[in-house]
Design goal:
single chain; mainly alpha; two-stranded antiparallel sheet; two-stranded antiparallel ribbon; 28 helices; 4 strands; 64% helix; elongated
Length: 640
């Protein structure tokens, strides 16, 4: 417990230092229509309706996402501090720190789950002799925090002393995950709370499942393992039931936060197949597999509540609530093209985790045209090689490498929804938040194995082990320092819309989205000429970017160029006929020009569309214009 408290304190301190310069960063992109301009968050009494009305997810009312728990946190943030961004960033950071701590608990629990307590370098039973024991007794707990966790006085036990190689692996994984620059987006981008918050519940559910399995199967390793291995207790204890219920509850909370949590039952099943399935050469045997107890505790019925009580009702409910929101639900690409392009995206995720360069709020990924493109072939081969490596490690009896194999599959499973389902943006860093857990744990286990089983907190009785331990500690510290510096630099990029999207436009000049966001920034700040230039750049890159056409129409209307405004609104509607803002804009422009009959048709169409999505504000505006046209008709002022 003391070690866990020290680890948690270290994570809080380190994360606070690394992300301190991000707390005053402003709002970005989707933050405006999800939070800043969303009227539904301004009244805390709307919270119950978030669970039944998906139109309150955004100002626009048409986004078909069922994420009520996420909206609850936004509403509470607004209630506590209105639109001060620091409160929103603190909440995001708190969830991230919690996720990092869960990474520590997961690794520690999995490494301690073997009956031997050993994963080829994760021995919990020291093999050194009495002189070593005497030296270990003389080590004094002088340091705190990290040093407390790794260098504290080793407590005597019947069989020797607990060596912290496993603890070191877990600590290294959690610290690396906490400061990795790839994860900076979930703290800086307030709307990305859906990823960091759902990731926290995902990890909590998985950790409780690990604890549930270790107790329900009757294999519970004590703090100091006796020579014959873990103690076996009766399966199905009361504490195991508690862990199971918490896992199920965390899964439910995660599903109410973001849809990607639906992959958790697959991960739980894989975990059981990896570590509790009867086999001669699997970790299940090392974990003390007992056919009677294990078969009972690991039966398929344990997964049913996750599917029948959470996943299926969620799909039915969210689908029912969002069925009226699909008028704009055309696919940005086919499923086949999305799958081929997904191979490039997955490869890019791997690259950014191992070499976090060219990080950006927007990444340009060209859609694949066919399988025989060299990028698709190369990416497919690379990913296949990773899976083959995972299979080879799975077949090894070494528990540490089997855990690595498991988290290789974790990477693919957690990214499965975005790989299959075509989304507007193929690659967003916050979507890879859960997949980044695999990188941190794999690196942490590798560093822990390098420590060796006779290295205690960097203190070794053997010259070779001393050097090996020092190298692993040095490598860990270097990684943490480098990642921390890179994250602090990324925080500066997220300062405001100008710095963020200028960075994206420099790294990806062909990003229409980056230039569109810059246009929005200049539009909000009244720089009309620069905004028009930015939108024109967008349309040069993507002529079908209907939002750019609409925004150009708005600017032309303000500038009095009514004909140009009408032209842009019509182009936007030719691409997206259900675009409400363009429909309303066209109606206003036609009224300004005196073509009231045509304007009337546009307003009537806007009312019809707005009723589908329950956008009362648009309905009221359109009806007021229709009323004005009707009054003018009564007084005979039409076409005068």
């Amino acid at each position: 417990m003391v070690i866990k408290a020290g680890v948690f304190a270290s994570l809080v301190l380190l994360s606070s230092l690394v992300y301190f310069n991000s707390l005053e960063n402003g709002y970005h992109f989707d933050d405006y229509h999800h939070i800043v301009d969303n009227p539904h968050l301004k009244d805390i009494r709307n919270i119950p309706s978030f669970f039944f009305d998906t139109t309150k997810f955004s100002k626009t009312g048409w986004q078909n996402h069922y994420r009520p728990l996420l909206l609850v946190t936004y509403a509470l943030n607004y209630y506590a501090g209105r639109l001060q961004p620091v409160g929103y960033h603190v909440v995001n950071l708190a969830f991230h720190v919690g996720s990092a701590f869960l990474v520590f608990l997961i690794v520690e629990s999995m490494l301690a789950g073997s009956k031997e307590g050993v994963a080829a370098g994760f021995s919990l039973r020291p093999k050194f002799s009495s002189p070593a024991t005497n030296l270990a007794r003389r080590l004094k707990p002088a340091a705190t925090g990290l040093a407390t966790g790794l260098g504290r006085r080793l407590k005597p036990a019947a069989t020797g002393y607990l060596l912290p190689a496993a603890c070191f692996a877990a600590l290294a994984a959690s610290l690396i995950f906490a400061v990795h620059p790839f994860n900076s987006e979930v703290v800086n981008y307030i709307t990305a709370r859906s990823s960091v918050m759902s990731g926290f519940f995902y990890l909590l559910a998985f950790y409780c499942w690990v604890k549930y399995r270790s107790q329900a199967t009757g294999v519970t390793p004590p703090p100091i393992l006796p020579p014959q291995g873990g103690e076996e207790k009766g399966g199905g204890s009361q504490s195991s039931t508690v862990y199971y219920l918490i896992s199920l509850l965390a899964f439910l909370l995660g599903m109410l936060t973001k849809e990607v949590v639906i992959t958790l039952p697959i991960v739980l099943w894989l975990y059981d197949m990896y570590f509790y399935r009867p086999s001669r050469r699997t970790q299940a045997k090392a974990c003390g597999y007992r056919p009677g107890t294990q078969a009972k505790a690991c039966g398929y019925y344990a997964y049913l509540p996750f599917v029948l009580l959470v996943a299926v009702p969620y799909i039915v409910l969210s689908g029912h609530l969002a069925e009226g929101l699909m008028y704009e639900g055309r696919l940005p690409r086919s499923y086949y093209v999305n799958l081929l392009t997904g191979t490039k995206v997955l490869t890019r995720y791997v690259q950014m985790l191992f070499v976090p360069v060219d990080l950006s709020v927007d990444h340009v990924v060209q859609n694949a045209r066919h399988f025989w493109e060299w990028e698709v072939i190369a990416s497919t081969g690379f990913l296949a090689g990773i899976l083959v490596l995972g299979l080879w490690l799975y077949r090894r009896s070494d528990a540490g490498w089997r855990i690595v194999s498991f988290f290789i599959l974790w990477f693919f499973v957690t990214l499965l929804p975005t790989t299959i389902i075509p989304l507007e943006a193929m690659l967003q860093e916050n979507r890879g938040y859960l997949s980044g857990v695999s990188f941190a744990i794999i690196v942490g286990i590798g560093l822990g194995k390098g420590m060796g089983e006779d290295v205690a907190a960097g203190f070794s009785l053997r010259p070779k082990s001393r050097v090996r331990g020092a190298i692993c500690i040095a490598v860990t510290c270097i990684l943490i320092v480098i990642f921390s510096i890179m994250t602090i630099q990324r925080n500066r990029v997220w300062k405001d819309e100008l710095t963020l999207w200028t960075d994206a436009a420099i790294k990806y000049p062909m990003s229409a989205r980056a230039h569109f966001a810059l246009g929005n920034f200049y539009k909000r700040n009244g720089d009309i000429a620069i905004a028009i230039e930015s939108y024109r750049k967008v349309l040069d890159l993507d002529p079908d970017y209907y939002e750019a056409h609409n925004n150009l129409g708005v600017l032309y209307f303000k500038e009095g160029a009514i004909d140009l405004a009408i032209e842009e609104f019509k182009r936007a509607l030719s691409i997206m006929p259900a675009h409400l803002n363009a429909r309303m804009g066209l109606g206003k422009a036609l009224m300004k020009k005196g073509e009231t009959e045509m304007a009337k048709k546009e307003f009537e169409a806007a009312v019809t569309l707005a009723r589908v999505t329950h956008q009362d504000t648009v309905i009221r505006d359109a009806m007021s214009y229709l009323k004005w046209i009707k009054e003018r008709a009564i007084f005979g002022e039409i076409n005068q």
